[in-house]
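Is pyridoxal-5'-phosphate placement plausible here? Inputs below.
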Amino acid sequence: VLVVHNETSTGVTSNIAEIREAMDRAGHDALLIVDAISSLASIPFRFDDWRVDVCLSGSQKGLMLPPGLGILCVGPRAIAASESAKAARHYFDWRPVLKENALGFYPYTPATLMLAGLRDALRLLIEDEGLEAVFGRHRRLAQGVRAGVAAWGLTTVSRDADCHSQTLTAVELPDSISGQDVVDRARALYGLSLGVGLGEPQINSFRIGHLGALNELEVLATLGGVEMTLHGLGLQVELGSGLAACERTFLDARATDGALDALDSVRARVGASKAAS
Ligand SMILES: Cc1ncc(COP(=O)(O)O)c(C=O)c1O
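Reply from A.M.:
I modeled the complex. Tokens:
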């Protein structure tokens, strides 16, 4: 069973735990293989609890690195399946990788700079900010973006609040303007990189990414750019409406989850660096 955890074209997140339960109920021993490319390190992913057999991810999204590393987590059932699989393979055979990794090596020349970057990214995510805070930040940023979209009178392609992606938002547009126009104008006038709508061709949309090394002010700048773009294309959006809604959401979320924690962690870090010097 192949599942995309976080659908980057529509901004919908799948419930992997429920898919696992459905597989258990069906009593089928299929492997569960999950694409976590746009979710890993941004929203919770529980390889062991969900009994995922293979998780595929990449370096370029929540791990905040350039593209280039394919990252796999492989469980014992998948390894056993690969032992008996008949498919011809060489470079993509993970058996020599596992063997050499156990000795601290790779069977091929590794992308050493990317691995050094990965070590730093993991330190930032796990030690400096902490994964729970990283997940909270992504939730907060996504809520802010969705509040902005609603204030413009637009809807997200994802309709079910339980499935909204916390890493990107696809925004549906009226027929009067196309997703491509929004993307082109935002890039040309403001140097803002948005995504065109993907997937269902009948859904006229564009996408706002909000994952990785990103904070509230960067999201506000993005929403400001989108707001000016939509206004410039003749859509009736009140300037400042999306920004105000987003700011309100950020302030409310900060009041309830973690503004003080963040301050405490900055104080702790400043204290630690003073002590070190
Ligand atoms: C969920 C998901 N799967 C797969 C891919 C493809 O990744 P790549 O372009 O590294 O092959 C992407 C890229 O954005 C993605 O978001």
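Short version: The mean pLDDT is 93.
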